[in-house]
Structures are given as structure tokens and as C-alpha cells.
Write a structure and sequence with these properties.
Elements (H helix, E strand, L loop, with lengths): L4 H25 L2 H7 L9 H9 L29 H4 L8 H24 L22 E2 L9 E2 L1
């Protein structure tokens, strides 16, 4: 399959712009007290502790967690650690407080865009994403393995 490298690079640029704009938008929605508390460690939306503080602390949105991490869900209530993934965020996208609902829905969109950028689109200079599979003639050549899966399904590389 022939890959249009120019279109892939353009998509990378557009996704980078989108992710950066979405990050700035999300950080503006974070309560100031939480931003100040996390300045030293960095305001990375990839840090679970930062997201947990935004969503569930009294200085943050003070949401009541509904899902807990696998390792802590069976512990006492005060020892449970709330999940911060998109499965848990979907519980809060209809919150009556507009900033909370917007933050949660935008964080889900931000995560999806970051995943698309890092895993699929990638970067030509780093050789990541689809770029690492493009042959010198501009094509991607899939390969299938019928003998490598335990379930009997085919795997492709």
C-alpha cells in the first residue's frame, strides 16, 4: 500500500497543533490551587496523580469516585485509589457543573488525539508510528503469521 508521506506529515503537524491547543485549554480549566500544587512536578496530563488531584481533591473538582484501581478496589474506603482513565471520566461528562463536564469530555478527546499521534501517525525523524513501517519505495508491506497466536487467529506486523 502506497503511503502519501506529505499527507502523513501534514496530519502529524495538524495533530500536534490540536494536542497543544487542547492541552492549553485543559490546563486553563484546572483549578488554580491544584495547578500551584503541581507546578514543581509538572502540569502533565499524563501523570495520574495530577489528574486524580484535579478530579477528586477538595481543591479540584471534588468529584465522588465510582471506579477504583484494580489493586485497591477491594481495600477499605480510605485506602482505595480512584481510576483516572477514560472509562471513569465518562461518568462525569454530564456533570451539572459546566467546567467539570467540559474538562472530562475534553480530556477524553485529548487522550485519543495523543494516542493517534504517538502510536499511529508518529514522527518521520524519530521513525515512529506508521513511518517505521514505510519501505524505501514508499509502500507499507504487511506480513501475516498464522503460527504465532495461542488463540488461532492471525497476527499481522
Amino acid at each position: 500500500m502506497l503511503v502519501d508521506r506529505d499527507a502523513l506529515n501534514e496530519m502529524e503537524q495538524q495533530l500536534n497543533e490540536y494536542v497543544n491547543a487542547k492541552y492549553r485549554e485543559l490546563i486553563r480549566l484546572v483549578p488554580a490551587a491544584v495547578r500551584r500544587r503541581h507546578l514543581q512536578k509538572g502540569l502533565s496530563l499524563g501523570r495520574d496523580a495530577f489528574k486524580r488531584d484535579i478530579l477528586f481533591s477538595k481543591d479540584g473538582f471534588n468529584l465522588k469516585p465510582r471506579l477504583f484501581t484494580k489493586g485497591t478496589k477491594d481495600l477499605d474506603k480510605h485506602e482505595q485509589v480512584p481510576q483516572v482513565g477514560k472509562d471513569h471520566l465518562t461518568y462525569f461528562v454530564n456533570d451539572p457543573r459546566p467546567n467539570v463536564a467540559r474538562f472530562c469530555s475534553e480530556l477524553i478527546a485529548f487522550g485519543a488525539a495523543e494516542k493517534m499521534l504517538s502510536t499511529y501517525v508518529g514522527n518521520e525523524e524519530e521513525g515512529s508510528g506508521f513511518h517505521k513501517y514505510i519501505a524505501s519505495d514508499g509502500n507499507i508491506y504487511p506480513s501475516y503469521m498464522l503460527h504465532r497466536t495461542a488463540t488461532g487467529r492471525t497476527a499481522s506486523a
